[in-house]
Amino acid sequence: MIIDRDLAPRLEQAAQKAPAITLTGPRQSGKTTLCRSVFPDHSYVSLEAPDVRSFAIDDPRAFLAQFPGGAIIDEVQRAPDLPSYLQGNIDADPTPGRWILTGSQHFSLLESVNQSLAGRTAVHHLLPLSRGEAIRFSDHPQELDETLITGGYPRIFDRGLDAADWIGSYIATYIERDVRTLQNVGDLSAFARFVQLCAGRTAQLANLSSLADDCGVSQPTAKAWLSILETSYVVFLLPPFHANLRKRLVKMPKLHFYDTGLVCHLLGIHSPQQLISHPLRGPIFETWVVSEIAKQRTHHGLTRGLSFYRDRGGTEVDLVVEHPEQLTLVEAKSAATPSAGFLKTARRVAAHLQSEHSCDLIAAYGGDQLQERSEGSLIPWANLHKADFFLNHLSEGTPE
User: Fold this and answer.
1) Nearest residue to 278 (alpha-carbon basis) of 289, 267, 288, 287
2) Nearest to 48 by CA among 23, 71, 77
3) Which terminal residue of the chain has fewer beta carbons within 10 Å of its beta carbon, N or C?
4) What percentage of the chain carries pLDDT values higher than 70?
């Protein structure tokens, strides 16, 4: 089943202006399916196949000459010099939308593209399914804990697969393969242990020294391994909010995973019953909320403007969404019963920021009642995709 992805209209718009489009994102996030559905008349070729990859590397001019009208070239980072040859092709014929390049290794792909195709390609990012996209599948999780465990990789929904089985294979097949591609990691078992430690610290400060000590590796090694997880779109580092304040704010970023299904699997959580009583259910829910908002904004072309607030006194808010004229402060509360206390720390942060910023307050929580209170909004988890983190109000429509 092919669903509409939120990024599709932006790709269509980009194809009207730029000669090339570069689409990055984690493996199995749906890049190929999206590109082939948005550009059905384009030829398609994948550099995953060894013979095709060898052709692209050994004779790039002849390889590109196969596609006089352009093409979708999948996993283009596997032929790193190809964009350099594509540059001349584009300069000779700059017709918009001819070339669609995809890749699952962010840094290596963009380095190659930026060096060769600067000003010639529009770069976009496709992350796993947001909740708003997942519910477009007829068989999607209905309950919160099932949603957290299932995650957002499209193949699970498309094929009706068991999430635990598929994610286990995904970790072994893609994460470890990317490790071998990106860096010579001598001890894969230590790296696997490192990934599990990261899962246990989702929604916590990314303390490299502590991670290195617990894993038994050096701090430079821990830093390099964390960079691999970022490059492969497994984790992202949420920066701390900085403002011209007298408050002493923490400088260390927070660690989040793009997909809570991965987190749960790495922690050995395979059923909603396990998750309900798990001590990390709160942090897992926080990561889900933060990643949901990150996905929404990324798929609308906004890759910046997210941070968290924490000062040395312990006053904290889980997410700060920056807008041109104000901030949205978001708290994540996994409890199902709404409470005015959900907004308590957000109110304190807003008070700290009031001299320089106007703030809207939101608590995303595990219940099902939408409540608009004088101090802010309590938004049910299943309605989070309806919250407009661009204009700061709930979109029209009935809850899913």
Assistant:
1) 267
2) 77
3) N
4) 93
Taking the C-alpha atoms of residue 381 and residue 384, their distance in angstroms, rounded to an integer, is: 5
Task: Say how far apart CA 64 and CA 7 lie, in whole Å.
Answer: 27
Token look-up 């990261």 returns 198
Where the chain has pLDDT below 70, the residues are 105-110, 180-184, 243-248, 390-400
C-alpha angle 115-119-122 in degrees, rounded to nearest 5 = 100
Phi, psi angles (nearest 5°) of residue 116: -105, -35
Closest CA to 93 of 112, 65, 122: 65
**Distance from C-alpha of 80 to C-alpha of 75, rounded to nearest angstrom:** 10
Interatomic CA distance for residues 323 and 328, integer angstroms: 8
Q: What does the block give as tokens for 90?
A: 């584009």
Average pLDDT for the chain: 90
Write the CA distances from 320 to 113, 316, 329, 396, integer angstroms.
Answer: 31, 10, 5, 24
Where do we find the tokens 């008070």? 351
**How far is 398 from 60, CA to CA, in rounded Å?**
52
Q: What is the pLDDT of residues 230-241, one digit of tens each?
A: 888 999 999 999
Q: Which domains are assigned to the chain?
A: 8-125 (3.40.50.300), 131-235+254-278 (no CATH)
pLDDT score of 390: 67
- In this prediction the pTM is 0.92
Q: Which residue in the block uniquely carries the two structure tokens 């669903």?
A: 3
Q: How many CB atoms lie within 10 A of CB 217?
A: 19
